[in-house]
Design a protein that fits this description.
6 helices
Length: 129
Amino acid sequence: MDASQIFFYGLLALLIIYIARKIYLYRSVKNYSPAELAEKLKKEKNVILLDVRTPMERKQDYIKGSFHIPLYDLGADKKELLKFKDKEIICYCRTGNRSLIAASKLRKLGYNSANLKGGIIFWNKAGLK
Protein backbone atom coordinates (compact mmCIF):
# COMPACT_ATOMS: atom_id res chain seq x y z
CA MET A 1 0.00 0.00 0.00
CA ASP A 2 1.50 3.33 -1.00
CA ALA A 3 1.12 6.72 0.69
CA SER A 4 -1.75 7.89 -1.51
CA GLN A 5 -3.82 4.82 -0.66
CA ILE A 6 -3.13 5.25 3.06
CA PHE A 7 -4.19 8.91 2.77
CA PHE A 8 -7.36 7.95 0.88
CA TYR A 9 -8.39 5.29 3.41
CA GLY A 10 -7.62 7.62 6.30
CA LEU A 11 -9.77 10.31 4.74
CA LEU A 12 -12.54 7.79 4.09
CA ALA A 13 -12.42 6.64 7.73
CA LEU A 14 -12.72 10.25 8.95
CA LEU A 15 -15.69 10.84 6.67
CA ILE A 16 -17.44 7.71 7.96
CA ILE A 17 -16.82 8.77 11.57
CA TYR A 18 -18.18 12.26 10.84
CA ILE A 19 -21.36 10.88 9.23
CA ALA A 20 -21.89 8.34 12.03
CA ARG A 21 -21.55 11.11 14.63
CA LYS A 22 -24.13 13.27 12.82
CA ILE A 23 -26.57 10.36 12.64
CA TYR A 24 -26.07 9.64 16.35
CA LEU A 25 -26.64 13.31 17.26
CA TYR A 26 -29.72 13.54 15.05
CA ARG A 27 -31.24 10.45 16.65
CA SER A 28 -30.39 11.46 20.21
CA VAL A 29 -32.10 14.87 20.01
CA LYS A 30 -35.76 15.66 19.34
CA ASN A 31 -36.13 17.47 16.01
CA TYR A 32 -39.05 19.71 15.06
CA SER A 33 -40.02 20.76 11.56
CA PRO A 34 -40.81 24.48 11.17
CA ALA A 35 -44.56 23.71 11.02
CA GLU A 36 -44.40 21.52 14.15
CA LEU A 37 -42.48 24.21 16.01
CA ALA A 38 -44.85 27.00 14.95
CA GLU A 39 -47.81 24.96 16.21
CA LYS A 40 -45.99 24.13 19.46
CA LEU A 41 -45.19 27.81 20.06
CA LYS A 42 -48.87 28.71 19.59
CA LYS A 43 -50.13 26.04 21.99
CA GLU A 44 -47.47 25.84 24.70
CA LYS A 45 -45.98 28.46 26.97
CA ASN A 46 -43.27 26.19 28.40
CA VAL A 47 -41.05 26.48 25.29
CA ILE A 48 -38.00 28.69 24.72
CA LEU A 49 -36.35 29.32 21.34
CA LEU A 50 -32.58 29.63 21.53
CA ASP A 51 -30.66 31.16 18.63
CA VAL A 52 -27.10 29.73 18.69
CA ARG A 53 -25.79 31.67 15.68
CA THR A 54 -23.17 34.41 15.78
CA PRO A 55 -24.16 37.97 16.75
CA MET A 56 -23.61 39.05 13.12
CA GLU A 57 -26.06 36.41 11.85
CA ARG A 58 -28.56 37.40 14.54
CA LYS A 59 -28.50 41.02 13.35
CA GLN A 60 -29.48 39.94 9.84
CA ASP A 61 -32.54 37.90 10.80
CA TYR A 62 -34.00 36.04 13.77
CA ILE A 63 -37.17 34.33 14.93
CA LYS A 64 -39.31 36.73 16.95
CA GLY A 65 -39.24 35.99 20.67
CA SER A 66 -36.06 33.94 20.56
CA PHE A 67 -33.26 34.17 23.09
CA HIS A 68 -29.63 34.43 21.89
CA ILE A 69 -26.49 32.63 23.09
CA PRO A 70 -23.93 31.76 20.39
CA LEU A 71 -22.87 28.11 20.27
CA TYR A 72 -19.27 29.02 21.07
CA ASP A 73 -20.48 30.74 24.25
CA LEU A 74 -22.82 27.96 25.40
CA GLY A 75 -21.64 26.18 28.53
CA ALA A 76 -22.45 24.97 32.00
CA ASP A 77 -21.61 28.37 33.48
CA LYS A 78 -24.37 30.19 31.57
CA LYS A 79 -26.52 31.65 34.33
CA GLU A 80 -29.06 32.89 31.76
CA LEU A 81 -29.98 29.26 31.06
CA LEU A 82 -30.78 28.38 34.66
CA LYS A 83 -34.11 30.22 34.48
CA PHE A 84 -35.11 27.87 31.62
CA LYS A 85 -34.29 24.63 33.46
CA ASP A 86 -37.98 23.66 33.66
CA LYS A 87 -38.75 24.55 30.00
CA GLU A 88 -38.06 22.89 26.69
CA ILE A 89 -35.25 24.76 24.94
CA ILE A 90 -35.50 24.47 21.15
CA CYS A 91 -32.27 25.52 19.47
CA TYR A 92 -31.94 26.93 15.99
CA CYS A 93 -29.16 28.18 13.74
CA ARG A 94 -28.89 28.83 10.02
CA THR A 95 -29.23 25.24 8.74
CA GLY A 96 -29.75 23.05 11.82
CA ASN A 97 -26.20 21.75 12.25
CA ARG A 98 -24.91 24.01 15.02
CA SER A 99 -28.26 23.89 16.79
CA LEU A 100 -28.12 20.08 16.76
CA ILE A 101 -24.76 20.29 18.54
CA ALA A 102 -26.16 22.90 20.96
CA ALA A 103 -29.23 20.80 21.77
CA SER A 104 -27.03 17.78 22.42
CA LYS A 105 -24.74 19.86 24.63
CA LEU A 106 -27.70 21.20 26.62
CA ARG A 107 -29.14 17.71 27.02
CA LYS A 108 -25.81 16.57 28.53
CA LEU A 109 -26.05 19.52 30.96
CA GLY A 110 -29.48 18.30 32.10
CA TYR A 111 -31.77 20.54 30.06
CA ASN A 112 -34.80 19.44 28.06
CA SER A 113 -33.62 20.48 24.61
CA ALA A 114 -34.55 20.00 20.96
CA ASN A 115 -33.56 21.19 17.48
CA LEU A 116 -35.28 23.05 14.65
CA LYS A 117 -34.73 20.96 11.49
CA GLY A 118 -33.28 23.05 8.69
CA GLY A 119 -32.77 26.06 10.94
CA ILE A 120 -33.95 29.55 10.10
CA ILE A 121 -33.57 28.81 6.38
CA PHE A 122 -36.38 26.21 6.49
CA TRP A 123 -38.34 28.43 8.90
CA ASN A 124 -38.28 31.30 6.39
CA LYS A 125 -38.99 28.98 3.43
CA ALA A 126 -42.12 27.85 5.27
CA GLY A 127 -43.23 31.49 5.39
CA LEU A 128 -43.14 31.65 9.20
CA LYS A 129 -42.24 34.74 11.20
